[in-house]
Specification:
There is one protein chain. The radius of gyration is 15 Å and the shape is globular. A hairpin with a 2-residue loop joins strand 2 and strand 3. It has about 180 residues and is of the alpha/beta class. The strands form 2 sheets. Strands 1, 4, 5, 6, 7, 8, 9 and 10 form an 8-stranded mixed sheet that branches. The longest helix has 11 residues. It has a single domain, classed as Spore Coat Polysaccharide Biosynthesis Protein SpsA, Chain A (Alpha-Beta Complex), CATH 3.90.550.
Length: about 180
Amino acid sequence: MVLAAGRGQRFGADKRLALYRGRPLLEIVVGTIREAGLPLRVCLKPDDSQCEQLLSELGVGYCYCPEARHGMGHTLAQGIQRMPDWDATLIALADMPWIAPDSLRQLADAAHSEAIVAPIHAGQRGHPVAFGRRFYSALAQLEGDEGARGVIQQHADALQLMPLADPGVLRDADRPQDLH
């Protein structure tokens, strides 16, 4: 699942459509997930015509998160409620185009219904994070802008850190200069 319903205020424009090496960030993230061979659903805010058009052209399914304006927690909660009944869901972010497909595949392969699997690189925990079905109800209760940090803290015993040699798991595009 790709969270792509944010406001991108620090970026100053719609960063999902910002070009990196000639392609929109969202297109790059979607392509990487496809290259990893993973099923895919993208969470959008309502009336998101440009992203809808891009995803339709790419043949990618999406869902709407009407409460996205309230923050990532709301988006994640609504997105997880709209996902197929997968054993686990890898929660990716639309502003992280530098993650290698093999890293996504490794995280997905380690995911199962009872685990939370997160990448670690150079001693820092990164993204995306896989949540097993056991945690869907907790994710569905999220609100505000914190995301899933609280769920991870509450279920620290289920957290499995996966060392990856991929610095892309730590890098996102919050400002236009991050793309250079």
